[in-house]
């Protein structure tokens, strides 16, 4: 049998099938397997989430019910046990996120390669899946050669980070066989801003804010609110909070915006009195030098401009109304959102092969016998926290466990 795609889902599927005694060839068109793994979690690899299958399902954005059987058979506990058995000690951090103790994504990639160690790896481009009488019979490569196969697992990934091998070829191959493709879009992606806000973000480029609360709105509707870390970029905003928020953005309501609470531990009144105490200590200084106790230096010029007071004004001359206005800015620093970054820069792709045409227990196509799917190629995506890799592992395990099971 052949696995097309040597990423997280494909390697897990290949190793699982090989352990059943099947002869497995992995076809990967990049120059190495597990390339995308190497950049996940900022190079640390958030390999799963230390939670129950039900909790995973609550964090799956698209088609969570489809994953019930796969997650029951291969849960986060199973993922962690497998990695530990492959020689990768793990640790659980904030939000139950699981990482290798080494903080090296390369250790997870190497573990998956060891797991699939009995498989043959072929670095080549797959052109299409060949069928006969409604069943798989092989994989045609771009050089014209046919890899004969009585079973195929298609695990080519989505459209995110094409340099790692995710070029969308799997969508085309699945569509050629009659499968419906839910249009792929960016999920877990940085957000862009326009106009004055873009210039502000550019001025703060590289500045990371920690322990802030980010709330996403479309019109008057609040879509997401969470506390954590974010980052300003030359085109807008990014970082963990922003990536999570992007998955909720639908573009169906009013104009989208985020509001950043820069001091979430303090309510407005407490913050007002805190500023008063700071200003007493800085009474002789100018307004331009009054925010050093409140904000990182890279943000001060932007907030001063928004505050709109004379920056040469002495702190002891700042009125109560101006202090209240400052509190308002600190508790709700508003950034209008223009859109999402391109899908090629997304952490995860939403959309893909319609799960209505896939058996949820085995990942087998309902249209083509002995064709199975796994990973990001399917119309499944989740929020940040290790859930998307868990989907890849669970669907890969299901495909590898059940392909050609009636032989």
Number of helices: 12
Strand order of the largest sheet: 17-16-13-14-15-12-18
Percentage of β-strand residues: 15-25%
Rg, alpha carbons: 25 Å
Q: What share of the residues lie within helices?
A: 25-40%
Distance between the termini: 12 Å
Shape: elongated
Total strands: the figure is: 20
**Mean of residue pLDDT values:** 94
Structural class: alpha+beta
What summary fits the major beta sheet? 7 strands, antiparallel
Residue windows where pLDDT falls under 50 for at least 5 positions:
none
Describe, in short, the structure shown.
With 407 residues, this protein is of the alpha+beta class. It has helices at residues 8-18, 53-58, 68-73, 76-85, 105-115, 169-176, 195-203, 240-246, 268-281, 300-307, 320-331, 387-402, and strands at 2-4, 25-28, 48-49, 90-92, 97-100, 120-123, 126-132, 135-141, 146-148, 152-154, 181-187, 191-192, 208-218, 221-232, 236-238, 256-261, 333-336, 339-340, 348-353, 371-373.
Word description of this protein:
The protein has a seven-stranded antiparallel beta sheet with strand order 17-16-13-14-15-12-18. The chain has a five-stranded parallel beta sheet with strand order 6-2-1-10-20, with helices on one face. It has a three-stranded antiparallel beta sheet with strand order 3-5-4. It is elongated. It is an alpha+beta fold. A hairpin with a 2-residue loop joins strand 7 and strand 8 (135-141). Helices cover 29% and strands 24% of the residues.
């Amino acid at each position: 049998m052949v696995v097309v795609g040597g990423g997280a889902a494909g390697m897990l599927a290949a190793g699982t099938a090989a352990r059943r005694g099947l002869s497995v060839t992995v076809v990967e068109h990049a120059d190495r397997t597990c390339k995308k793994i190497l950049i996940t979690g900022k190079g640390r690899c958030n390999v799963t989430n230390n939670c129950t299958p039900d909790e995973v399902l609550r964090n799956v954005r698209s088609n969570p019910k489809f994953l019930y059987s796969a997650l029951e058979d291969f849960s986060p506990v199973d993922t962690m046990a497998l990695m530990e058995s492959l020689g990768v000690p793990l640790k659980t951090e904030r939000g139950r996120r699981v990482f290798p103790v080494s903080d090296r994504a390369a250790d997870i990639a190497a573990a998956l390669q060891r797991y699939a160690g009995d498989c043959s790896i072929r670095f080549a481009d797959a052109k299409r899946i060949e069928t006969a009488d409604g069943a798989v019979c092989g994989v045609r490569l771009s050089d014209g050669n046919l890899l004969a196969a009585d079973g195929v697992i298609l695990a080519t990934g989505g459209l995110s980070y094409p340099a790692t091998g995710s070029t969308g070829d799997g969508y085309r191959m699945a569509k050629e066989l009659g499968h419906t493709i839910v249009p792929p879009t960016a999920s877990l992606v940085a957000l862009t801003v326009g106009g004055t806000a873009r210039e502000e973000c550019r001025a703060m480029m590289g500045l990371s804010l920690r322990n802030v609360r980010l709330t996403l709105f479309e019109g008057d509707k609040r879509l997401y609110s969470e506390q954590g870390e974010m980052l300003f970029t030359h085109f807008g905003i990014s970082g963990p909070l922003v990536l999570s928020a992007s998955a909720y953005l639908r573009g169906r309501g009013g104009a989208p915006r985020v509001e950043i609470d820069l001091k979430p531990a303090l309510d407005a009144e407490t913050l007002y009195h805190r500023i008063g105490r700071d200003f007493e200590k800085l009474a002789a200084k100018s307004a331009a030098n009054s925010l050093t106790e409140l904000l990182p230096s890279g943000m001060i010029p932007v907030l001063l401009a928004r505050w709109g007071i004379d920056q040469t004004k002495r702190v002891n001359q700042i009125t109560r109304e101006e202090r209240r206005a400052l509190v308002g800015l600190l508790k709700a620093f508003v950034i209008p959102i223009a859109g999402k970054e391109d899908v090629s820069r997304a952490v995860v792709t939403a959309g893909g092969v319609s799960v209505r045409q896939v058996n949820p227990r085995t990942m087998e196509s309902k249209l083509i016998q002995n064709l199975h799917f796994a990973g990001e190629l399917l119309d499944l995506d989740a929020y940040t926290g290790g859930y998307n890799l868990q989907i890849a592992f669970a669907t890969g395990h299901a495909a590898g466990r059940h392909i050609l099971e009636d032989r």
